[in-house]
Design brief:
There is one protein chain. Helix 2 (21-33) packs across helix 4. The protein has helices at residues 3-16, 21-33, 38-52, 54-67. The protein is built from 4 helices and no strands. The chain is mainly α and 71 residues long.
Length: 71
């Protein structure tokens, strides 16, 4: 996998295990540095929602938002 795709996959995994904000922030930073757009990062939330479940997405969304500098 290229660096951007690998980072997006890792972000999805972190969301699925309800990782700490610092871990999500680090992976979002890595994804952005590798060329991922905000839309692609948000799309990861959509992609893992059926697997992770609604509570995990609700938990992760603010962490992703903070990591993107939106909160």
């Amino acid at each position: 996998l290229d660096e951007r795709t690998r980072s997006l996959v890792r972000l999805g995994a972190l969301i699925c295990v309800a990782a700490a904000e610092s871990s999500i922030r680090r992976e979002v930073d890595t994804a952005v540095a590798a060329g991922a757009s905000r839309g692609q990062i948000v799309a990861v939330l959509d992609a893992v929602a059926p697997v992770a479940g609604h509570p995990r997405i609700v938990n992760a969304a603010p962490k992703v938002s903070v990591a993107l500098g939106e909160a």
